[in-house]
Amino acid sequence: MYAVDDADPDKRRRAHEELSSAGEIAVSAQVLNEFCAVVTRKLARPMTAVDANAAVEDMAKLLVVPVDRHLVLEAIALSRRVQISVWDAAIVRAAQVAGCDELITEGLQDGQHFGDLRVRHPFTSLTSADD
């Protein structure tokens, strides 16, 4: 979302850097839905539905992990086991299903591990530079 949001130029720049330096990228179908909802409703300058649809179509060319009943049930179990939201757990499970070794998100704690999956907060250095 930060890659298309001009409200915070530093985060936008960092998001572009992350995307351009990434190897193979996987994304959960849930994240595509969240992206569309946020960029059309919650940004200071929301995208049009047509532009948001085009952006989602571009992202859908990546490896998209579907949210099926198995992922949902596994996410609920993970959520209860490690005390994170079911939404975050679904993103973690999708990353694990895709075989990712790193999950880039600001929704979980930087450095947190879920088995072999490590969480990395993309803006940690930006926030520590502001302190």
Could you explain the architecture of this structure?
There is one protein chain. With 131 residues, the chain is mainly alpha-helical. It has one domain: Rossmann fold. It is built from six helices and five strands; from the N terminus they run H-E-H-H-E-H-H-E-E-E-H. The chain has helices at residues 9-21, 29-41, 49-59, 69-82, 86-97, 124-130; strands at 26-28, 63-65, 102-104, 113-114, 117-120. The protein has a three-stranded mixed β-sheet with strand order 3-5-4, covered by helices on one side. Strands 1-2 form a two-stranded parallel ribbon. Strand 4 (113-114) and strand 5 (117-120) form a beta hairpin. Helix 2 packs antiparallel against helix 3 (49-59) and helix 4 packs across helix 5 (86-97). The longest helix is centred in the middle third of the chain and has 14 residues, at 69-82. The protein is globular. The model has no long low-confidence stretch (mean pLDDT 93).
Number of discrete domains: 1
Named at the architecture level, the CATH assignment is 3-Layer(aba) Sandwich
H-E string: HEHHEHHEEEH
* The first-level CATH class name: Alpha Beta
Contiguous runs where pLDDT drops below 50 for at least 5 residues: none
Beta-strand percentage? 5-15%
Helix content: 40-55%
* Strand arrangement in the largest pleated sheet: 3-5-4
Strand count, sense and closure of the main sheet? 3 strands, mixed
* CATH homology superfamily name: 5'-nuclease
Radius of gyration: 15 Å
Average pLDDT reading: 93
